Amino acid sequence: MKNNLFYDIDLNRVPNHIAIIMDGNGRWAKSKFLPRTAGHKAGVETIRTVLRECKKLNVKHVTLYAFSTENWKRPKLEVDTLMNLLSTYLKNEVATLHKENVKLTAVGDIDSLPSQCVKELNNGIELTKNNTGCNLNLALNYGGRLDIKNALVDIIKDVKVGKINLDEIDENTISNHLSTKCIPDPDLVIRTSGEERLSNFLLWEVAYAEFYFTNVHWPDFDEKELQKAIFTYQNRDRRFGGIK
Ligand code: IPE
Ligand code: IPE
Ligand code: MG
């Protein structure tokens, strides 16, 4: 181990923004003959571990896909458990996040979440808004298509009242109307548990992100797995359409 690292990571070239599709809680639980909800509880522990490691490695932005606009299709008991875990996590964790200079943000249709979650989330966002350390961005009731649709509606409204001219609209106009407008595009997207799809995550923003898929279920993902993902990322050749 060099520099106390499992992989030979260049600490000067860590991704600025890592976005994670935390998948596989249910399959992890099933493999242990546990209810799916036990998988979600174990998944919360992984969030703590991964965030700690991101702070250690100086990753500036971490977006976690915690609940999609499609996840409402799940049985009520599972949705309720996820919402309870969210509000409990925030309730227990916000003071610590604040102490560690973490800035909490959220993207998605937040106001349609249960009121307890909205309350805890807004408390956390307000408390940590001036922090300058790592940015923990939670994607909650988030859907990439919904976000793009909302941006379009807002832009059309701005055009209608004469705030923007039609011929001034460019790619930045769209980026600046998405709920992710304050966060740079992700450099690295990680999806755990073997599925290799986006499931409606950050559709616009991932245009030039690197993708890393692992079969490890989210509750088993740890410091070493995160370092492996970053190491793999650092060995990719990002060309952005140009040549090297
Ligand atoms: C990810 O794990 C958590 C959420 C989507 C909220 P899953 O619950 O999707 O786990 P699998 O994919 O069924 O194993
Ligand atoms: C994506 O995972 C959403 C989150 C991780 C929050 P899903 O488990 O919902 O995605 P699909 O249904 O397998 O595509
Ligand atoms: Mg899943």
Automatic annotation (TrEMBL):
Top-level taxon in the UniProt lineage: Bacteria
Main EC class the enzyme belongs to: transferase
Gene Ontology terms, MF aspect: transferase activity
CDD domains cross-referenced by the UniProt entry: Cis_IPPS
The entry's keywords: Magnesium, Metal-binding, Transferase
Cofactor binding, per record: Binds 2 magnesium ions per subunit.
Subunit: Homodimer.
PANTHER family associated with the record: DEHYDRODOLICHYL DIPHOSPHATE SYNTHASE 2, DEHYDRODOLICHYL DIPHOSPHATE SYNTHASE FAMILY MEMBER
Annotated protein name in UniProt: Isoprenyl transferase
Organism: Terrisporobacter mayombei
Gene name, Swiss-Prot/TrEMBL: uppS
